[in-house]
Design brief:
With 117 residues, the protein is mainly beta. It has 1 helix and 11 strands; from the N terminus they run βββαββββββββ. Strand 5 and strand 6 form a beta hairpin.
Length: 117
Amino acid sequence: MDSDVKCPQCGSEHVYQDGSLWVCPECAHEWDQLDAAASATGADEDVVKDANGNVLADGDSVTVIKDLKVKGSSLVVKGGTKVKNIRLTDGADGHNIACKIEGIGAMNLKSEFVKKA
């Protein structure tokens, strides 16, 4: 048992490894080894990842993976649209990417709907 790993949900120190997953016997939460390694090393919790799990950074280029309706408008951001020079934000509503899309303008996107280009 690795004493540095704690359950990210309840904070219990009584966790064990089951195959490639970590399991908490107190709250029955299961998580991936990479998440356990990040929590054990004290890695930054505010890491933004794309739909494929790649870490995003300010200035990256991303591609939209599905058609997205623009709220309050009849416009649609088509899947496959490339967005350059993104900025990562701390959006409380889950929109953690600020960008400008040609033909639409400035808008916020959720990282789960983009992939790193």
